[in-house]
Amino acid sequence: MSSGRRGRISDEEINELISKLQALLPESSRRRNANRSPASKLLKETCSYIKSLHREVDDLSDRLSELMSTMDNDSPQAEIIRSILR
């Protein structure tokens, strides 16, 4: 994405980036944005989605820690979990 003007992004490049960003959102967000919502709304939804992913990662990490604390470190199940995390 090089631009003839230094530091400036063309409208075409912005539209391409918005399309790429929109493709990364869950299906429900893509349907809501199908009517070409403004970029600001898409960015807000993207930020919200990223925050929800962070919460989900934190929750899964907590649940995994709890599970591992109740497991024998030498058990086959603990070894499976360790191999997945590598």
From TrEMBL:
Q: Can you give the residue ranges of the BHLH domain?
A: 1-53
Alphabetic keyword roster: Growth regulation, Transcription, Transcription regulation
User: What is a single molecular function from GO for this protein?
Assistant: protein dimerization activity
Q: Which Pfam families match?
A: bHLH_ILI
UniProt record, GO biological process? regulation of DNA-templated transcription; regulation of growth
Keyword Transcription regulation found: yes
Q: Which InterPro entries match?
A: bHLH_dom (IPR011598), HLH_DNA-bd_sf (IPR036638), PRE (IPR044293)
Instruction: Tell me the protein family, please.
Output: Belongs to the bHLH protein family.
From the Swiss-Prot or TrEMBL record, give the protein name. Answer: BHLH domain-containing protein
- What gene does the UniProt entry assign to this protein? gb18730
